[in-house]
Amino acid sequence: MGGIRITSWNVNGIRNPFSYQPWREKRTFEAMFDILEADIVVMQETKIQRKDLQDDMVLVPGWDVYFSLPRHKKGYAGVAIYTRNSVCMPIRAEEGITGVLCPPNSTTKFRDLPEDQQIGGYPQEGQLAGDVDEATLDSEGRCVILEFPAFVLIGTYCPAARDETRDDFRLGYMDALDVRIRNLIAMGKRVILTGDLNVIRSAIDTAHIPKQIRMDKTTVEELFSDPPRRLFNHLLFEGWVRGQRDQNRENPVLWDLGRLFHPTREGMYTCWDMKRNSRPANFGSRIDYVLCSDTMKDWFIDANIQEGLMGSDHCPVFATLRDMVQIDGKEVHTKDILNPPGVFQDGNRLRDWTTKDLLPMSAKLIPEFNNRRSIKDMFFKKTANPKSTSTSTSTPTPTSTPAPSGEPLGDSSKDLVGPTPSSTSDSSSQSGQPSSQPVSLTSVTSPRTSTSSSLKRTPSTVSNANKPSKKVKAALVKEPSARGQSTLMGFFKSKATANSSADTVVEDDQKPTGNLDGVSDTKNETDMLGSQTARVNDNETKNTHPSADPEKVFDPIQNKESWSKILGKRVVPKCEHGDDCVSLVTKKPGVNCGRSFFVCARPIGPSGEKEKGTQWRCSTFIWSSDWNKSQQTT
Amino acid sequence: MLEARLNQAQDLKKAVDAIKDLVQDCNFDCNDSGIALQAMDNSHVALVSMMMKAEMFSPYRCDRNIALGVNLVSFTKVLRAAQNEDVLTLKAEDAPDSLNLVFENSNDRISEYDLKLMDIDQEHLGIPETEYAATISMPSAEFKRICTDLMAMSESVTIEANKDGVKFACSGDIGNGSVTLRSNTNVEKPELSIDIELTEPVSLTFSLKYLVNFCKAQPLSSSVRICLSNEVPLLVEYGLAGSSYLRFYLAPKIGDEE
Q1: pLDDT digits (tens), chain B, 258 positions
Q2: Which residues 44-63 of B are in CB contact (within 8 Å) with A?
Q3: What angle do helix axes A460-486 and A488-509 make, rounded to 10 degrees?
Q4: Predicted ipTM?
Q5: Mutation test of the interface with chain A: which of B23, B129, B228, choosing the one with the most A Cβ atoms within 10 A?
Q6: Which residues of B touch A460 (CB under 8 A)?
Q7: Which of these, A167, A195, A169, A168, lies nearest to A181 by C-alpha position?
């Protein structure tokens, strides 16, 4: 299936997916994008700081990337758009939705650039209703905008509904998004809006509705009249708006592609609560979208979610463009209009991508990554060399180069040192070379390759793959010890109880021995009575030996039991399924904050509630303190 | 069978310390002439080449060619257990699974460690002997200071050598700066001399991040040799005992003008 795919994924940390299959296999972005079969990847919540950007995320072979990272908050939000150079090449790139930010190494705002250098459609004075100023709206690394000749692509991470303090910011951001999109469309540009918009469109897009209606004593109409959802529905064709439409939003402008291709599909969710483990039962919401403007509605052959792909609390969503699209009644190759003029014609590439095509916003131009040159390209590669030498020494085949190592080395040095006249002076310097450094290298190198053929040295990627498993092991080992630590309090307590019970035991059984007394006792025994074995036997079986000091007596069995209580495997309660419960800690502020409790370990069911008599999480709930008490009494 | 005894553990400690941030895993290739190491950093911008000749050790014995695949972070952990003045002995079988290290101090304290080895498939680059346009010898502490000082200003430095001297210049967001050195001979302390040999003027730009990284080798030697030529990687060389060396190569940044 051809087509050009635009994928959006809230990755919840740019490296996060690499902990999951299938991404953990190769752990490269190139491989990830190939598995996604994507040509444009919009990532949200990269949660990375500029200083932490690494080679592997910026210098992805065959891809270019544009970041929008928060100005102040560290390891928060962040949007990245990756574009496949062989398929598309934007003509302009911007960061932020309002245009108040500046391009790299410039103090001119995007909105103040000459018209032919800007994407346009910036909110004009009076267009934005909210109190939050534009610089603040764009300070959190939430938006990258790319312009292709065919359309403007807005990749964004809308603020989540967290608490009242963020409501103004959230609504302000969505308002700015709405205004910018409407302005762009009014300019005659096509728009694709994609990303984690953190808003549900209608009742079919979330599993949370029944509970919310019950808890808040509200109605579906009420729920979708709350300002962000109402605003979002204003944007969308077939969006539901209660009562009169708002001023300046008289018309819808975007199609919800996921819904367009799956109009009645239920449970089409893209985000789940990881803490409640609600993904297995698909108790989630659809808040990630690919939306497009009306004039390109028919350009798409497919749009869907990829709920089966793990790696984040969101799943990827995508929309696929046709290879040929209609513009003003004319068939056009999509690639022609996804690249600057002159790069593609009739779907055929006219010229190759070069570093000169990089836009100022490209992350590859960040000084750290810019103008990189590989030392490999500068030094002659030796890998092929030992092979040819070994073959030529063993069997002088006419096909292989007759001169073993001298010539290729000489050639390369000639190329490399070309500009300096002194070094290229004559061939004697070439013939002289092998005697010095290169020879010492070959002598070191060639045995290595010989061992490699015999031992089949495993590639370094394998050793890398081993590392994480080691880490996992360490983590596993750590956990029990941490548990052991937490019961140190229990140790003091149980010692007291052990003492008191030991007293009773002494009275009942008369079974004294212990670390100190045991030693002294046996000493006495051997010294005074001689018949060692008999006496020990006596001591163990008949327990007639009177203890010297009852307060210092330790019962070995008691001792062992109390130690095993501390160090042994903790007994956890069973849930209704008969499975072990998991221990969690109350995070909700209040009297119970910080208390730990046990609940059923299974994922939450499709109802979003604990369920009775189903395979999903049952209603077992036990405070740890209650459980510990009950354990001690039994 | 490899057996190599170093009179001062610090020679190896410092060398491994200097390269461990650049390279994670690499082979120590041992043969009768000594122990060699060649490795590129992950981004393939820099290359480390170390040669510890047999003369550095007493005794030194290596009958066959042995590649010791070592994780440098793990190696550092083991070497940390050695005091600088300890006598260090490296031992390995012919096809080793582990490298044996023995540290002895003057009080007859003997500690022994086995470091597990790994299979590393490494690319070897042939480094051609090059006549450089400019060769600068200077105190290693001076070079380190220049790099760290300029690092505060910018991500990259332009090293320009001409008949007047050598100039390290950079410009960044907060401003620009430069350090110029001229040849000078210190008779009393020759290691403090600055010597510039020039066959033609040269000017190249390099990433300071890497240069600062190279400077971690400063404790190994009181002086450093810096060699530059157009279209050739920069060479930064720290001499070890005898004719052994630790060399760093760095690919220059591609010039803006093209």
Answers
A1: 899 999 999 999 999 999 999 999 999 999 999 999 999 988 888 999 999 999 999 899 998 999 999 999 999 999 999 999 999 999 999 889 999 999 999 889 999 999 999 998 877 778 888 889 999 999 999 999 999 999 999 999 999 999 889 999 999 888 999 999 999 998 898 888 999 999 999 999 999 999 999 999 999 999 999 999 988 899 999 999 889 999 999 999 886 544
A2: 44-47, 51
A3: 50
A4: 0.70
A5: B129
A6: 25, 120-122
A7: A195
Find the CB nearest A373 among B131, B200, B251. Answer: B251
Answer whether B214's CB lies under 8 Å from B248's CB: yes
- Residue with token string 């092991």: A473
Query: In angstroms, how far apart are the furthest CA atoms of chain B?
Result: 64
Q: How, if at all, do strands B195-198 and B134-139 pair?
A: antiparallel
E-assigned strand segments in A246-353: 254-256, 271-272, 284-285, 288-293, 300-305, 317-321, 324-327, 330-333, 344-345, 348-349
Q: Give CA A572 to chain center in angstroms.
A: 32
Least Cα distance to A90 among A53, A138, A51, A42 occurs for A42
What are phi and psi for residue B100, nearest 5 degrees?
Answer: -95, 130
How distant is the alpha carbon of residue A222 from its chain centre? 35
> CB of B36 within 8 A of CB of B52?
yes
Instruction: Write the DSSP string, A223-240.
Output: HTTSHHHHHHHHHBTT--
Distance CA A198, CA A318 (A): 16
The runs of H, that is alpha helices, within A254-334 are 257-261
Give the closest-approach CA distance of B170 to chain A in angstroms: 12
Q: Whole-angstrom Cα distance, residue A302 to residue A323?
A: 12
Give, in order, the Cα–Cα distances in Å from A484 to each of A8, A140, A487, A563: 44, 42, 5, 11
User: Tokens at residue A493, please?
Assistant: 């307590």
Report the alpha-carbon distance of residue A206 to residue A271 in Å, rounded.
9
Query: B168 - beta bridge partners?
Result: B159, B179
Which tokens belong to B101? 């290290």
Q: Which of residues 369-398 of A touch B (CB under 8 A)?
A: 370-383, 385-386
Tell me which residue of A257, A290, A286, A256 sits closest to A269, measured CA to CA. Answer: A286
Q: Are A575 and A601 in contact (CB under 8 A)?
A: yes
Q: Are A389 and A405 in contact (CB under 8 A)?
A: yes
Name the nearest CA neighbour of B134 among B43, B223, B22, B229. B229
Give yes or no for A633 touching B (CB within 8 A). no
Contact between A370 and B155 under an 8 Å Cβ cutoff? The reply is: no
